[in-house]
């Protein structure tokens, strides 16, 4: 393993560690617990899981891994707040979407070689990327790992 | 900039982004707000800042950047919970420690070249490191970035 491969492995390990921690927590939380707000007046567990699933689903087109699996999540969990009038999928379905999106990402990640990780993501033009080579796929992975950590720190409050 | 340098830049940028977000939040929060629990029955803002300062202080010896600046933080904010009998530093002091530790880390990071980032950290033996080369300084940075994101997601609840 060369140094670049090593660094990419470390970054992917960090992503996988946060996904695993989230899955372990979700396995411990009942649907009833997930329906509660994580803190008074804050988002519910259901909203946060939908939000995370929507954000991870958006990584598929952003990284060039294909179309979104569940495009309808965007309106409910990204562009509108928890207290919108939009009806939410069942918690059973959300748990399924969450796993499915992450599995699809894992499959895509497994097929990327180190150079491909440093290719541009799809929200940057080729022209801008030439000047800003840090706007690559690995950067998306890092930023989404921190996003997940951020909300995981909140979801943990649903535990007794 | 070669690919390895680019990846290290991205990882450092992610760390710096979380530090900046935290500093921005801390600038907005009064000492009074920081004295509150982030959610009912959970850690106070003061405890979390002390905890983060203690963990970042511990990065100094772990990375070979020198001794801890504030070793007394460990007992108060790492090995004992918020509700221990140990007296806590003033919030003014904690804000200062937090900044000072991060500035010391930033100074150290600025002097590391890409190969040094991939050298072992000080909690792994040379023998184990030969078999597990991912246990390096960059990995510490990644893991502490996620740790910070995790608690930042909680501190934000102190905002009105």
Can you put this structure into words, describing what you see?
The structure is a homodimer of 160-residue chains. The first copy, chain A, has 160 residues and is mainly α. In chain A, 66% of the residues lie in helices and 0% in strands. In chain A, helix 3 packs parallel to helix 5 (91-110) and helix 3 packs antiparallel against helix 8 (137-155). Chain A is globular and about 45 Å long. The model of chain A has no long low-confidence stretch (mean pLDDT 97). Chains A and B meet through helix 1 and helix 8 of A and helix 1 and helix 8 of B.
Keywords:
homodimer, 160 residues, mainly alpha, globular
Gist of the model:
In chain A, 66% of the residues lie in helices and 0% in strands. With 160 residues, chain A is mainly alpha-helical.
Helices and strands in order, then pairings?
Two copies of one chain form a homodimer.
Chain A: H1 3-28, H2 31-34, H3 45-63, H4 73-79, H5 91-110, H6 114-117, H7 126-131, H8 137-155
User: What structural class is derived from the secondary structure elements of chain A?
Assistant: mainly alpha
First and last CA, distance of chain A: 43 Å
Largest sheet of chain A: none
Uncertain regions spanning at least 5 consecutive residues of chain A:
none
Q: Oligomeric state of the chains? A: homodimer
Q: Element order, helices and strands of chain A?
A: HHHHHHHH
Counted beta strands of chain A: 0
Rough outline of chain A: globular
* Cα-atom radius of gyration of chain A: 17 Å
Q: What is the overall pLDDT average of chain A?
A: 97
Percent of residues in helices of chain A = 55-70%
Which chain pair has the greatest contact?
A-B, 37 and 37 residues
Strand content bin of chain A:
under 5%
Number of helices of chain A: 8
